[in-house]
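Known limitations

Structure tokens in this collection are predictions and should be treated as such. Users comparing against experimental data should check residue numbering before alignment. To illustrate the layout, the record for Fe-S cluster biogenesis protein NfuA is reproduced below. The input appears on top and the generated tokens appear beneath it.
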Amino acid sequence: MAPPTLPGPDETEDNAQWRTAGDRIQTLVEASSSGGAAARERAEQLVREVTDLYGAVLERMTDVALAADPGLADRFAADDLVASLLLVHGLHPHDIERRVSDALDSVRPYLGSHGGDVSLLGVVDGVVRLQFQGSCKTCPSSAVTLELAVEDAVRAAAPEISSIEVVAAEQSPNAGVIPAESLLTQLHSNGHRSTAWQPVPELAELSDGEVGGFRVSGATALVCRVGGDVFAYRDRCSACTGTLAGAQLSGAVLRCPNCGAGFDVVHAGAGVGGDSHLDPIPVLVRDGVLSMAVPQGVA
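Generated tokens:
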């Protein structure tokens, strides 16, 4: 996907500081347990009082701001840090269906690289209903990466949803369509897989046509940029099972330095002139930073 304008180093550092504030608060509350149950209860009550206070103030400020300039709603929603705080207090300017739709738009370019797309059929009683379209004849691992990208984006935008359901689309008999049930069957809040997205700001430094190796969450990923898009794959050639270290890009085709096999990095790593394919790793812009999600079993 094509990343938007990324924040500068100072802004990224500032965002990281506030995004980890919740963890620091939780650590302090847990530390209060050393003083006994009563001490912890007082600490938790203090946090609730402070949270309710700034929530009430935030609501008044938001009402005044939007009354003066309704266009600020989109600006608030576009700032991940502001939007997440508004969500906590039920003050987000956009309804749940708009937020889910925007989240799907953010990952649609990524789905396109796997030959797929997704439509929002509606949100009823906390249940998000989706329909997937598209095909990828040589990339069964697309199901995993699409699930990671779509589920994470939807739940981040609308944490209050209860489940995600997929409605099967009609399939063409002559196309290798990925079945909807292999992407997302029914993902409920108490059973969906958690995804640890790791920020890798260094990915933004790759230039067009450049290939680089990155170690993320114990896995080695080969990352390349084609125009404004960044693509990541497991460091393993599916043709010879060797490392892809030293591989070069020719247009959108990545050539294995050992066996010479070619893979189309723009279209989910599909083999060129063969049935082999690379294993893709999701890359999305999260909180203004390019981030990777390494599926279980990749490392």
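For this record: Residues 1-7, 136-141, 172-194 have pLDDT under 50 and may be disordered. The first strand starts at residue 116 and ends at 124. Please report discrepancies through the issue tracker.
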